[in-house]
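#structure-requests
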Amino acid sequence: MKQFKRILLKLSGEALMGNDSYGINTKIVEEYCSQIKEAVMGGMQVGIVIGGGNIFRGMQGADKGFDRALGDQMGMLATVINGLALKSMFQSLEVPAKLFTAIRMEPVGEGYSHLRAIEALQNGEVAIFTAGTGNPYFTTDSAAALRAIEIQADVLLKGTRVDGVYTSDPEKDPSARKFEKISFDEAYDKGLKIMDLTAFTLCRENNLPMIVFDMNTKGNLLKIIKGGNPGTYVYP
């Protein structure tokens, strides 16, 4: 594993709940932001795409009778709330951070531009990308892959509840085997659910590697930064 200079970190909205059943657990947010602070202090350029499932998920709204496009827009707003929580925590930790929104809503955040995002990263700011792609029917996984490609990230890091990619769900199958590394083609052929197909295809076609790892284990992010692999390396 090589050391990376610029990363895109994908965090799910559910991760921000911690053990709560809804909303934002400030202790978890502080733990995540503290780990990211260590990365930034070590010279890493960090972009973050945050989901919104801890507040509202568009697909769940559609299941309850909401118009799908409007439901997805509600989900986009949920990601902005989470992004503001991250920015506020970074401020308290004295880490410069800039919030970008795919839907223009100044003064809440700056309208997304990949050039402005790269400029922020080069200035040592954490770039927080919210509102997904700005379009319904696209997940925040797809937004993470897209933003990673646009900012020319060296790798896409997907922080999850498990420590990598397994042959089957390790929470349900005790015999599941973890992959240390796997190619995109092999993962696709095996039908492994790493990200949605749109995000997966974007990474594969643009030669963007991915690391799936457990963000809840303190120190894992720094291990990756230093060239370690506490998760699963997915390569083109």
